[in-house]
Design a protein that fits this description.
476 residues, alpha/beta, TIM Barrel, 37% helix, binds 4-nitrophenyl beta-D-glucopyranoside, three-stranded mixed β-sheet, eight-stranded parallel beta barrel
Length: 476
């Protein structure tokens, strides 16, 4: 396994999941502040008020990245820090400006996501993503950030996982703002697409010409449970409303005809105006792909209880609008602590499919990783155990997960797929949305009582892999 010299090895985070300091330096609430403070929405009533306290500990976090040898860091910007209640807030931007400078000093390329789900609350109050004006507000915000940081950012990504924003936020309601309205969800998906196109175009006018422009999608690698025509059709439907609803317009093919047919009973799509698809098809330098596990689907005949084992909360409405005759049967194990199946072949197949359907579009793995119940060993008390206070965090399964997925990516590259970088999710344990702090995805363990950081075994392993040019230390 050898990788190109300029291949990016990174780790990723998101503003609401790590920053804390929810009311500091002028920041006002986003939909995730409101949602997490609403009883019953997030496990154990956890909120992002403090999170990993990265807002105060960012210097130490950047030092850890440098020690790990990361060549890139993917983070997101909090819209309501930069434009609290719509007013420009220089103190909010200054935080990111100092962070970017510190990264560059260490030779770490900043990969900036403008939107990782934390819509300013006042924009949700005005209608949120189902309201067309939100897309224009997003483009204005992108320009503000571009003007402030545009001379220093390596890659700009407009949105992280618009599928989650639209369908978990407005259809199943397990994410903020917690609405369950399929028409609102499809409308939101379109306005997120539009927001991406408007922001991508506006940014190019204000940032360095060398900057790359991107978006990150959580593409579902959908597999039918059998080769039967009805299961294949179930896979086609889910692929349309989870993947091609974004890939189509963003990569210049417009909305797929089968998606419009499958959802015709829900909406006539009259919210798409003349010229929108052209706006959305703004040129992309690289497409970000987040991959965790494959999605297994089967035709549902309505006779037996419908299976919905795709990691979504039991009893919640389905996020898959227009797929009422599809079920999501349990997949063979093993699983992560999220209950997500572990299967690296899905990543390889997904990359090959993207390369086949959209040749010439470079790809980047912008998230890949796993939550496990890591074994924390406090060695301070045991004789010969590494000294007082020494702590080890053993996470062999995370190492295997990362190793297998990096190998799968490498196989796809060997078959001709142009992959430019790999980002582990996540640098730190953090606020895992509806699961609060109960799920840990980090390379670095966070003690939420003290804020203390401890490198897990996987962090040392990843450091060694990067130092060896992408070769895992125990490779045959
Ligand atoms: C992604 N799903 O979220 C996000 O980009 C991260 O912020 C998050 O922490 C990470 O993956 C792990 O969950 C997803 O239900 C959340 O399909 C849910 C789903 C997909 C991605």
């Amino acid at each position: 396994m050898t990788f190109p010299d300029d291949f990016l090895w990174g780790a990723a985070t998101a503003s609401y999941q790590i920053e804390g300091a929810a009311a500091e330096d002028g920041r006002t609430p986003s939909i995730w502040d409101t949602f997490s403070h609403t009883p019953g929405r997030v496990l154990n009533g956890d909120t992002g008020d403090v999170a990993t306290d990265h807002y105060h500990r960012w210097r130490e976090d950047v030092a850890a990245m440098a020690e790990m040898g990361l060549t890139a860091y993917r983070f997101s910007i909090s819209w309501s820090r930069v434009l609290p209640e719509g007013r420009f807030n220089p103190r909010g931007v200054d935080f990111y400006s100092r962070l970017v400078d510190a990264l560059l000093e260490r030779g770490i390329k900043p990969v900036v996501t403008l939107y990782h789900w934390d819509l300013p609350q006042e924009l949700e109050d005005a209608g949120g993503w189902p309201e067309r004006d939100t897309a224009y507000r997003f483009a204005d915000y992108a320009v503000r950030v571009g003007q402030a940081l545009g001379d220093r950012v390596h890659t700009w990504s407009t949105l992280n996982e618009p599928w989650c924003s639209a369908f978990l936020g407005y259809a199943s309601g397990v994410h903020a703002p917690g609405r369950t309205d399929p028409v609102a969800a499809l409308t939101a998906a379109h306005h997120l697409n539009l927001a991406h196109g408007l922001a991508n175009r506006a940014l190019r006018d204000v940032v360095a010409p060398s900057a790359r422009h991107s978006v990150t999608l959580n593409l579902h690698h959908v597999r039918g449970a059998s080769d039967a025509a009805e299961d294949r059709d179930a896979a086609r439907k889910v692929d349309a409303v989870a993947n091609r609803i974004f890939l189509g317009p963003m990569l210049g093919d417009g909305y797929p005809a089968d998606l419009l047919e499958d959802t015709a009973a829900v909406t006539d799509w009259s919210f798409v105006r003349d010229g929108d698809e052209k706006t959305i098809a703004a040129p992309l330098d690289v497409l970000g792909v987040n991959y965790y596990s494959p999605t297994r689907v089967r035709h549902w005949d309505g006779a037996s209880p419908r299976e919905h084992d795709d990691g979504h909360r039991p009893g919640a409405a389905s996020p898959f609008v227009g797929c009422d005759d599809v079920e999501f049967p349990r997949q063979p194990g093993p699983y992560t602590a999220m209950g997500w199946p572990i299967d690296a072949t899905g990543l390889e197949e997904l990359l090959l499919r993207l390369h086949r359907d959209h040749p010439g579009v470079p790809l980047m793995i912008t998230e890949n990783g796993a939550a496990f119940d890591d074994r924390v060993e406090d060695a301070g008390a045991s004789p010969g155990g590494g000294g007082a206070g020494a702590r080890r965090v053993h996470d062999d399964r995370r190492i295997s997960y990362l190793r297998d997925h990096i190998a799968a990516m490498r196989r796809a590259m060997d078959a001709g797929v142009d992959v430019r970088g790999y980002f582990a999710w996540s640098l730190l344990d953090n606020f895992e949305w509806a699961y609060g702090y109960s799920k840990r995805f980090g390379l670095i363990h966070v003690d939420y009582a003290t804020g203390g950081r401890t490198w897990k075994d996987s962090a040392y392993w990843y450091r060694d892999l990067i130092a060896a040019g992408g070769v895992p230390s125990d490779a045959p």
